[in-house]
Amino acid sequence: MFENELSNALAVEGLSEQDILGALEVPKEAKNGDICLPCFKFARTLRLAPQIIADRLTPHAKALDFVEKVETVGGYLNVFFKRTRLAADILRAAQCETVGESDEGKGKTICIDYSSVNIAKPFHIGHLSTTVIGGALYRIFKHLGYNVVGINHLGDWGTQFGKLIVATRKWSSLEEVEKNDEYFLNSLYVRYHKEAAEHPEMDDDARAWFKRIEDGDKDATAYFDAFKKVTMEAVGKIYDRLKIHFDSYAGESFYNDKMQPCLDILRDKGLLVESDGAWVVDLDKYDMPPCLLLKADGATLYATRDLAAAYYRKQTYDFCKCLYVVAYQQNLHFKQLFQVLKLMDFAGADDMEHIAFGMVSMEDGAMSTRNGRVIWLKEVLDKAVDKAAEIISEKNPNIQNKMQVAESVGVGAVVFSALWNNRIKDIVFSYDKVLNFDGETAPYVQYTYARCASALRKGGKFDPEKADFESIASDEAYDVIKSVLAFPESVRQAAKLREPCVVTRHIVDLAGKFNRFYIGHRIVVDDEGTRNARLMLTAAVKHTIGTGLALLGIDAPEEM
Ligand code: ARG
Predict the structure, then answer these.
(1) Which atom in ligand 1 lies closest to the alpha carbon of residue 113?
(2) CATH code of the region 377-423+433-552
(3) Pairing between strand 291-294 and 278-281?
(4) Where in the chain are all domains bearing CATH 1.10.730.10?
(5) CA separation for the pair 152, 242 (Å, rounded)
(6) End-to-end Cα, the chain, rounded Å
(7) Which residue puts its alpha carbon closest to atom 1 of ligand 1?
(8) Is it true that domain 3-81 has CATH number 3.30.1360.70?
(9) 374 or 398: which carries more pLDDT confidence?
(10) How confident is the model at residue 1, as a pLDDT?
(11) pLDDT tens per residue across span 151-182
(12) Which ligand 1 atom is nearest residue 334's CA?
């Protein structure tokens, strides 16, 4: 907040404003001030001991009207701000509903490939991370002014479609599939794998049917379209509940007719080499296995489609970054893909990023759609909502829109569980953990938000001009104020690290700090100055938590 003015005042003794601004730090411990300047950074250029530099800068800092006191400790210049001044400035800035918006991304486009579900498979808990991490990054970058393109690179191509056709024809019909849901489709898929283990000839049939899809055969395409429709309808409902939005659903099949130019570039550059009849790019030099792009029968692969997609995205969106939010299981795929793009001199080659995250397993081992060993996301969401409804009935039986609030709380708890840790951490799914609403959870943050809303309803209109900031100068209040102040920086960090959990952790921390303040201080009191200041603080917290929850894709009910 006061960094610029401070830097300007300290630009003496041969130091520039830029030098100071770049060196300022927020001390880890409050006893070391609100902001500090490590003077040893300038010792060499100024040929002075850090302590002497700190001493010489002290009077310049002290002269500022927002500075309360200055201490020099171990070569650090520790600056304490006047709490009332800081409170007034920060809380004024946080009186609008969205906090920390900026235009630093103006004019830049970021593509984010996330969720990218596979057609004909219901949404399981393993898809939660890519969907909500991608969704959060989407909103975070938007908040910072970027033009963001959310892309669902649908897995809508491959031999599994041939298998499903065989299964449908054997045990069901096109009409029945169209009438049923994604679980029905999945049961056909599971049955296929069971029976094909004993009747391998089924796989030949499946390949033949897939070939017919590739050739544009009418019957085959009708099945394909039905599978896609059933899946997309089901997935769409989940996206609505998770508040997930895409600007493009161009998936693997979209690139059917767009791979040739890439293969031509590779051939022209002499990068495509034959290997047992197949065509690959040799990556031996880069310590990677070859990247397979054309099978011996001429079929293209996942990687071939991703090459075409990269070119298409660069051409269509002219991105400055193209992010792929995909589990680390695909580390090698993306390393190969990015390396091949570099070898092709692809214009966006340096801007491709794999945003990897950990795997989800069940308590008794890995998941597998083929064997039907999975936890469906819809079930998890429904269970969480049921539990939320139970708790709400108990605690607040007269609440309006009970089911709507239960939906917000239940779904919020599930989303939160996937956005709490660093991306890369593996998760062992446990209902107990996801349905635990105590401690560091979405319901806790939502509850704090509702608590703020309730205090603001009770307090009525308040006037910042009449606020007495001395009444929020206690340590507890100051902790809250500093957390509000630091929120925009957390949003920037979350974007920079591609880690939504920075925002998650920030709002949990802020909720804890506000609750400590709330326990020790009444908000709606008679004294006008105090009431106005505390309501102003409460509104700032509400807006900050509300912004954080919105960025994560979690609802914030006004009452709970
Ligand atoms: N559908 C793929 C899967 O479920 C993920 C696709 C990720 N995006 C991409 N452009 N490769 O494994």
Answers:
(1) 8
(2) 1.10.730.10
(3) antiparallel
(4) 377-423+433-552
(5) 15
(6) 34
(7) 155
(8) yes
(9) 398
(10) 67
(11) 999 999 988 899 999 999 999 999 999 999 98
(12) 11
